[in-house]
């Protein structure tokens, strides 16, 4: 928890990237935060800095830029993230509003998007807010705590890797933002930098998910410490994140396709050690949203389904999961806002086309 502005250096960025990748549940803003991490570290080496502030320190009338990358994680392996590209939709939004922002915040802490506001903060000098709108990563723009609260969805800005900037000045709701922006993103190559509808300090304090950057830092630092002490990084994640280990095994089959700006598919895992003789399947739409033991659903969104390397604890993305990997499937609790009826309508199993009633893995019997 940040009680006053805190300077983040390269060491903190390393931990943040590691923790954000765990919280990314396989996706999040271009997937693996590796390239965005190096963008920020290079800016730090040029003498720039990032200040992290507690959301409670925001003035009620402060204006906060909500930033993200939109698109399929697989595309980021060819179209590498760039800090100046991340800034462009922010500047386009400022030009539309006729004023500058006071701070910047991630739409989702998970994956590469956990580093997106850090790139913008380093370039602009704006403080980064220790909060986000998801507490993890989700594949669609309407899957935020701000949408659950019914806040206005526009204006909205999007920039591609060329010189195309789009500002949607007015839009009915976040479902329409998702539909329109997804079409544009697909047309420009399935990746774009975006700036969501601006939020006031009061809105961030009331409807944002607080201290998620600190949460990612804690997770990353716990894994780093476990590695230095030659302890089990998986146990460190579970302790730091109040999580639960569901399965350990070897990936034996992956089905994956990119369509409509999403990476969709499933991975099948054969059990090892205590899980020998059993099979686990994870389904994904950019992020993992359902886990089955055999044919039985045992974990589902909005619980976080985190697939990590069984030895190192590194997150494994849906674009990179492959045959032969030794992995552990973990569950971490999701933000409370998404467990409400309104939240489940936005991010529950049926939002992903799965006809299941949400049952938290933390309330069910062991798989």
Structural overview:
With 367 residues, the chain is of the alpha+beta class. It has 2 domains: 6-212, CV3147-like fold; 231-352, Beta Barrel (CV3147-like). Helix content is 29%, strand content 27%. The protein contains 10 helices and 18 strands. It has helices at residues 10-23, 34-45, 83-97, 116-124, 145-148, 174-187, 201-207, 212-228, 233-241, 341-347, and strands at residues 6-8, 50-53, 63-71, 103-106, 128-129, 131-132, 156-159, 165-168, 191-195, 199-200, 209-210, 244-259, 262-271, 279-285, 287-293, 296-300, 304-309, 326-332. The two termini are 33 Å apart.
Sequence-ordered SSE layout with sheet pairings:
Blueprint: E1 6-8, H1 10-23, H2 34-45, E2 50-53, E3 63-71, H3 83-97, E4 103-106, H4 116-124, E5 128-129, E6 131-132, H5 145-148, E7 156-159, E8 165-168, H6 174-187, E9 191-195, E10 199-200, H7 201-207, E11 209-210, H8 212-228, H9 233-241, E12 244-259, E13 262-271, E14 279-285, E15 287-293, E16 296-300, E17 304-309, E18 326-332, H10 341-347
Parallel strand pairs: 2-5, 3-4
Antiparallel strand pairs: 1-2, 3-9, 3-10, 6-11, 7-8, 7-9, 12-13, 12-18, 13-14, 14-15, 15-16, 17-18
Helix pairs in contact: 1-2, 1-8, 2-4, 3-4, 8-9
